[in-house]
Design brief:
Elements (H helix, E strand, L loop, with lengths): L6 H20 L8 H25 L12 H23 L4 H10 L2 H17 L3 H7 L2 H6 L1 H15 L6 H33 L1
Helix pairs in contact: 1-2, 2-3, 2-9, 3-5, 5-8, 8-9
């Protein structure tokens, strides 16, 4: 995605949370119930990288920060990677790949649906991220990737729908995602208005 000397360093930095999660899991830090902390932490990191992706879309507007645009797709894919890890933690650690148990669980926990919706959107965006897909989709690529905003809203709903007594994590993750999301949506809305005015003139 970008042929730069810093690429290996960036990859290692973004993989550090994953390495810590796996180390903690296999060293027994999460036992006797590894599912809950592993799901929580992988979900937190997916949300953080989604927030960084949104923030970069704003920051690269500044000429001096435009260089950061080369990392945007990679960070978006990192967000997808941690969301995939979050889903696998649910399927393997929490449900033990028991589809009967999962079918019963989703009836009791409807917030799983919006979480799955967010994952499917991120999956679609990951599939359409390679350069050949950008060329193939052309102008439609930007429209498709604006579904990232919907995925962010689904994640926020997923967070709050499952809150019981301690909303601290939901509050902080909502703040770091909603602020760049609102700014970005405002920019998109204003750009559309400007284009329509220019066409009318």
């Amino acid at each position: 995605m970008w042929d730069r000397k810093e690429k290996p360093i960036v990859v290692i930095v973004f993989c550090l949370p994953l390495l810590w999660l796996l180390y903690s899991l296999f060293s027994g830090r999460y036992f006797p119930d590894p599912a809950e902390p592993f799901m929580t932490l992988s979900g937190i990191w997916a949300s953080i990288f989604m927030s960084i992706t949104l923030s970069l879309s704003i920051l690269v507007k500044h000429p001096r920060l435009k260089v950061l645009s080369r990392y945007r797709r990679f960070i978006g894919l990192t967000a997808f990677g941690y969301s995939l890890l979050h889903l696998l933690a649910y399927l393997v650690l929490h449900a033990g790949f028991s589809w009967l148990w999962i079918s019963e669980d989703v009836l009791k926990r409807p917030y799983i649906y919006v979480g799955l919706a967010a994952f499917l959107i991120l999956l679609m965006l990951a599939i359409t991220s390679p350069k050949r897909m950008i060329k193939k989709l052309g102008k439609k690529w930007k429209t498709v990737h604006r579904f990232f905003y919907l995925a962010t809203l689904c994640v926020i709903a997923h967070l709050w729908w499952q809150v019981k007594s301690s909303p601290e994590i939901a509050i902080w993750l909502t703040l770091i995602m909603i602020v760049p999301l609102v700014i970005r949506l405002k920019e998109v809305f204003l750009n559309k208005i400007k284009k329509r005015l220019a066409l009318n003139l």
